[in-house]
Amino acid sequence: MGKFQLTRLQWFNLILLVMLVSIAGISGYRGLIAHFLNVRDSSSTARPESSIHRLHNAALDLEKPALYNVVFFLSKDCPLCNNYKPLLDTLHAIYGQDPRFLLVGLRTDVSVASDSSYFLPVEYTAGKDVAYIARIYGAKVTPEVFVIDSNNRVLYSGAIDNWAYDTGKKRTNATENYLKDVLFAIKRGQKLPYTQTRAVGCFIE
Q: Which residues make Cβ contacts (< 8 Å) with residue 34, sequence separation at least 6?
């Protein structure tokens, strides 16, 4: 059998084919993530601020879609998140029984597979895709929260409260309860006291 050889043009075509297959694979993989989260990549939209979409209610197997999704970026590896667990339990006790609200945790820690309901009953792991998913939401740290309505509008984004006011700096007690006040106002059809605050916590890598 003769020696197998490729011309320069054939090598060029082979390399180009490998690159195209690789790109298509990455795009398809991200497309599945985007489909599950019902989001659009901000780079492909005319208005990046409108690219954040709520979790797809059908994917959560709900009989009735929630009017408001409260989406948390959380990590058990983040001490600040762990300190918020009692408050999350309280919020779920108040709003978890209200069909208008759905509290969802997007976990960035890898241990979520064996501990999937540490913070909230409904949790998903972002795992190695956290950078991509966080970029879609615009999340920078854990904990960070987004309140999104059924029209995919972000009503509030940012901190849960002002207990942590800077990196490594905390008050004895929170003096502004951003999320609680926002949810309280939504429940009563009142004007929201906050629409955006700066979240402080563990950086999402």
A: 40, 41, 136
Domain count, the chain: 1
The β-bridge relationship of strands 68-74 and 101-107 is: parallel
Instruction: Give me the CATH number covering residue 104.
Output: 3.40.30.10
- Single pTM value for the model: 0.70
Q: How many helices (H) and strands (E) does the chain have?
A: 5, 9
Residues forming a β-bridge with 107: 74, 125
User: 91: buried, middle or exposed (CB in 10 Å: 19+, 13-18, 0-12)?
Assistant: buried
CB count within 10 Å of CB 87 equals: 17
Does the residue 73 lie in any domain?
A: yes
pLDDT digits (tens, 9 = 90+) for 106-116: 888 866 555 66
Query: Per-residue pLDDT tens for 160-181?
Result: 999 988 877 788 889 999 999 9
Its domain, for residue 195, covers 42-203
Is 30 contained in some domain?
no
pLDDT digits (tens, 9 = 90+) for 33-85: 444 444 433 333 333 333 334 444 433 444 456 789 898 999 999 999 999 99
What's the rounded Cα separation, in Å, for the pair 101 and 94?
A: 10
Do 158 and 141 meet the contact criterion of CB atoms below 8 Å apart? no
Residue linked to tokens 């020696």: 3
